[in-house]
């Protein structure tokens, strides 16, 4: 017996809208069953994961701070994935952006006079660093036909080792008692706080602005139209005169620039200095966020908030319910699988063909 998927002739907009909601509810049911099997209360777990982080101001700010880099990176990745090219190395581009942008902050430490240029220079350098780093696998793909999946992923480890070396060596604070970290950035090299006395910084506003810009670019510009056409029908795009090579370079530059900007925003915002590690895996988690958001900037923003919410809730569940953090990661992976499955069922009709070879 063979399983065939045939496109639905008349797709329902309501079904498309309800598919991720139903997938989320299914993930809650499955997750609740796992929690119950571990001897914990599913109701208490639901409150800890999804209600408690929304009940206090500090936890709401933490959700926003975790969602911002995820939304920014995933929005850039959406351009690649929509064009059917695969940038799996956003984590490395995030790290490189934080490293080279942060280098400016270290070099400007203790500077006197007009220092208004420092923060803009850090943001620009971080963005350009991520962009150039992303162009390495893009050029290898365009010129030599090398798989961008492998090269972009392998470059993640190069970036992480480079940051580790720089934080422990050339950029280490000489007065830092041999700790592997740079000097703490001056105020001129830090992102301003959105509210006095709180932890919410301007990196959140940058992520929101990126979502708005990406929405307009994809919907209203020739570049966005090109990305959509190439992703939907590469052969038709070639007949229309669109260049696969130029588009590959462009979307890698966009995604790498977004990841690099997220990296320097994290360093100049929440962290405030260079360390051997500046990312808890934002670049890899953003891949999940991009697909959870259906490669739509607005959907990505919602997905980033959901993932950030479960991450903060998972940290609380570790303390309150003694649940392992791996359960949170498993739930996020399950949610992605269910959303993709629900999308497939809303677009295709499943048909069993008896007597046919698989």
Automatic annotation (TrEMBL):
Subcellular localization is given as: Cell membrane
Q: So where does this one cross the membrane?
A: 21-51, 63-81, 93-111, 117-136, 148-167, 200-223, 244-264, 284-309
Alphabetically sorted, this entry's keywords are: Cell membrane, Membrane, Sugar transport, Transmembrane, Transmembrane helix, Transport
Pfam families membership: BPD_transp_2
Query: According to its UniProt record, where is this protein mainly located?
Result: membrane
**Top-rank taxon:** Bacteria
Q: InterPro entries in the record, alphabetically?
A: ABC_transp_permease (IPR001851)
Q: What is this protein called?
A: Simple sugar transport system permease protein
Provide the taxonomic classification: Bacteria, Pseudomonadati, Pseudomonadota, Alphaproteobacteria, Hyphomicrobiales
């Amino acid at each position: 017996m063979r399983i065939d998927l045939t496109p639905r002739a008349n797709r329902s907009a309501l079904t498309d809208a309800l598919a991720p909601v139903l997938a989320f509810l299914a993930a809650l049911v499955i997750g609740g069953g796992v929690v119950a099997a571990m001897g914990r209360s599913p109701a208490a777990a639901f409150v800890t994961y999804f209600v408690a982080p929304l009940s206090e101001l500090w936890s709401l700010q933490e959700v926003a701070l975790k969602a911002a880099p995820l939304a920014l990176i995933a929005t850039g990745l959406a351009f690649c994935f929509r064009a059917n090219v695969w940038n799996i190395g956003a984590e490395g581009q995030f790290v490189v952006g934080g490293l080279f942008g942060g280098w400016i902050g270290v070099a400007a430490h203790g500077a006197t006079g007009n220092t208004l240029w420092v923060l803009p220079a850090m943001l620009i350098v971080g963005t350009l660093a991520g962009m150039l780093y992303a162009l390495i696998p893009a050029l290898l793909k365009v010129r030599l036909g090398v798989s961008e999946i492998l090269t972009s992923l392998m470059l993640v480890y190069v970036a992480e080792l480079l940051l580790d070396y720089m934080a422990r060596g050339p950029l280490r604070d000489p007065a830092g008692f041999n700790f592997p970290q740079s000097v703490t950035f001056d105020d001129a090299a830090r992102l301003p706080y959105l509210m006095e006395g709180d932890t919410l910084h301007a990196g959140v506003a940058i992520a929101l602005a990126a979502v708005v810009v990406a929405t307009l670019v994809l919907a209203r510009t020739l570049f966005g139209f090109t990305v959509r056409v190439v992703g939907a029908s590469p052969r038709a795009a070639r007949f229309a005169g669109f260049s696969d090579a130029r588009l590959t370079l462009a979307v890698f530059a966009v995604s790498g620039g977004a990841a690099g900007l997220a990296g320097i925003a994290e360093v100049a915002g929440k962290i405030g200095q260079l360390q051997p590690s500046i990312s808890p895996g934002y670049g890899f988690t953003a891949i999940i966020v991009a697909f959870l958001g259906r490669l739509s900037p607005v959907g990505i923003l919602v997905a980033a908030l959901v993932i950030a919410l479960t991450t903060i809730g998972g940290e609380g569940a570790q303390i309150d319910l003694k649940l392992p953090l791996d359960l949170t990661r498993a739930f996020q992976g399950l949610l992605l699988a269910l959303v993709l499955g629900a999308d497939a069922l809303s677009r295709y009709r499943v048909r069993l063909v008896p007597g046919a070879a698989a």
